[in-house]
Amino acid sequence: MTKRSATAPTSLRRTAGLLAGLALGVAVLAGCSSDGADTDCGLDACTVTFDRGVDASASILGVEAKLIGAQGDQVTVEVAGEQLSLTIGQQAAEVGGFAVTLDSVTDQQVQIRVARNAGG
After folding, report:
1. Looking at residue 42, what DSSP letter applies?
2. Nearest Cα to 39, choosing from 54, 18, 24, 61?
3. pTM for the whole thing?
């Protein structure tokens, strides 16, 4: 008869939980930093709110996002080294493995969403 240890499944669960927690911590720490912008990042997407009238940029998901300009409801941003013209309601623009959308434009701020493409 073979005697099995009751601690093996518990140990595996603890190890899996620890690894998941570490992965989440690394993702959050590597997620974002900004100058003239606020960021709200998850594992695969960030919302960036740029202040208008300043040199605003954010480092998110391993790429740089910058506000180039805004006029009316059209905004020009640079993401991963490529300039994009965005309007509210348009389909996401694809750049460097990311999907970029314009969420809102006000006199004070511009908000975009940058998400990793599922295949990228």
Report:
1. -
2. 61
3. 0.70
Residues 35-91 have pLDDT tens digits of 789 999 998 999 999 998 888 999 999 999 999 999 888 999 999 999 999 999 999
Backbone angles phi, psi at 20, to 5 degrees: -65, -40
What the block records as the tokens of 64 is 């740089």
Can you tell me the distance from the alpha carbon of 43 to that of 104, in angstroms, rounded to the nearest whole number?
22
CA torsion angle for 12, 18, 20, 25 (degrees, to 10)?
Answer: -170
Q: Which residue's structure tokens are 């809102």?
A: 104
What does residue 56 show for φ and ψ, rounded to 5 degrees?
A: -100, 135
